[in-house]
Structure formats: structure tokens, C-alpha cells
């Protein structure tokens, strides 16, 4: 036998041990428990295939394969996240111009990266060819020295004349520093460059 407490306010059937109504929280302390009426158990509601979700209807359908493997849909890879280098700024400074000024005449030559300076000759081997009329130019080689811009600085390299079958290499000086054949010396604004007997002032602007 099952006992219940009937709420005097709403008529809800509460369990015997309840002190408050489950519906409206009415106090049930003074309500005596009574025996619950005998009712047949409710019939289970039949769910139609039309009302069932598509996945349930497919499982209940006799046409669906019994042992069909589940379909696994692979999630697409997330879009790559672009990251920027923090605190790193690259600045491209303009390359300064290198100008050589002849001490004897004041004539100026603008030098480009990789250019060669040498004696004037029909072979036109050098990019800048010093005229034969200059005093001391006869000791300047046809390919005397090469100028390069690297590591943010202009530099001069004394070309080793052995590369052209020469027996000796006439000197190249930057101020009082002599460049050995094939050696490179840095240049600064105001330096004095001497190619054998020809002197040029270095201008870096």
C-alpha cells in the first residue's frame, strides 16, 4: 500500500514524507496521509517514424544496413595564425655616394659598387679611366683597384696583377696604410687614396 499527501490548495499528490507541496510549496504538515488510489500503469506512447528525428528514423528503417560503419567526418585544419615578429624593425638606409676627387685637377668621379679604377687604355677595362695626361698615371694599372660597398661601408681592394699575368702590383694606399695585392681597406670621408703616383681625395656623401 502506498500513501500520499494531497495538497489542500492545488490537489497535487505528494509523497507521504513530503512537508511541502511539490507544485505550490503549500505546507503539508497538518495533512494526514491517505492511501494512493490504484491506477493502471500508463501505456507507453508509440512514436511514429514521421515524428522521429531523421537519425532515429533512419536507424528504425528496415532499408538501413544493420552493420554499416559510422561515417566519420574529419574536421578541417584550422586556418594558420599569422604571427608577426615583435620589436624587430628593419630599416633600409640609402647607400652613401662615393666620390673621388683628383688632387691635381679637382676633377671628380662618382664611383658605383663593384667599379674598377685604372689607367686610360684602349681596352676600356676599367669603369673609371684616369687620363694619361695626369702626372704619375703611367704607373697606374689598367685594372688597379676595385671599390665595393659592404657591411655599411665603402672599401677598396688592390687588384692582384698576377691575375692578368703581371709580374708585380703597384701600390694602393689609404692614407698611410698600404693594401697588399688582393687585400681590402675601409674608406672614410676625407681619406687620401693614392694609386701609385696619383692621389685622390675620398668624399662619402
**Could you say which structural class the secondary elements and strand pairing correspond to?**
mainly beta
Count of helix runs:
1
**CATH third-tier fold name of the largest domain:** Tumour Suppressor Smad4
Average pLDDT across residues?
A: 81
Number of strands: 14
Strand proportion? 25-35%
Query: What is the CATH architecture term of the largest domain?
Result: Sandwich
Based on CA atoms alone, the radius of gyration comes out at 51 Å
CATH C-level name of the largest domain: Mainly Beta
Helix-strand sequence: EEEHEEEEEEEEEEE
Unreliable residue stretches: 56-62, 70-84
Shape: rod-shaped
How widely separated are the two ends? 111 Å
Largest sheet: 6 strands, antiparallel
What is the domain tally? 2
- Helical amount: under 10%
- Enumerate the strands of the largest sheet in spatial order, edge to edge or round the barrel: 5-4-14-13-10-11
Domain FHA: 116-195
Biased composition (Low complexity): 47-71
Organism: Magnetofaba australis IT-1
Region (Disordered): 29-71
Amino acid at each position: 500500500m502506498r500513501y500520499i499527501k494531497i495538497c489542500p490548495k492545488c490537489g497535487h499528490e505528494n509523497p507521504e514524507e513530503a512537508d511541502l507541496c511539490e507544485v505550490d510549496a503549500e505546507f503539508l504538515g497538518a495533512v494526514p496521509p491517505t492511501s494512493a488510489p490504484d491506477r493502471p500503469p500508463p501505456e507507453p506512447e508509440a512514436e511514429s517514424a514521421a515524428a522521429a528525428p531523421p537519425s532515429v528514423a533512419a536507424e528504425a528503417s528496415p532499408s538501413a544496413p544493420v552493420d554499416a560503419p559510422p561515417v566519420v567526418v574529419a574536421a578541417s585544419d584550422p586556418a594558420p595564425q599569422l604571427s608577426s615578429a615583435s620589436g624587430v624593425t628593419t630599416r633600409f638606409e640609402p647607400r652613401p655616394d662615393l666620390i673621388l676627387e683628383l688632387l691635381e685637377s679637382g676633377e671628380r668621379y662618382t664611383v658605383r659598387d663593384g667599379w674598377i679604377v685604372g689607367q686610360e687604355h684602349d681596352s676600356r677595362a676599367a669603369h673609371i679611366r684616369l687620363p694619361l695626361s695626369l702626372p704619375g698615371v703611367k704607373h697606374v694599372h689598367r685594372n688597379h683597384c676595385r671599390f665595393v660597398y659592404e657591411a655599411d661601408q665603402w672599401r677598396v681592394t688592390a687588384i692582384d696583377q698576377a691575375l692578368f699575368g703581371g709580374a708585380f702590383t703597384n701600390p694602393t694606399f689609404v692614407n698611410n696604410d698600404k693594401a697588399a695585392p688582393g687585400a681590402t681597406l675601409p674608406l672614410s670621408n676625407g681619406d687620401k687614396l693614392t694609386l701609385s703616383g696619383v692621389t685622390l681625395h675620398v668624399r662619402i656623401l
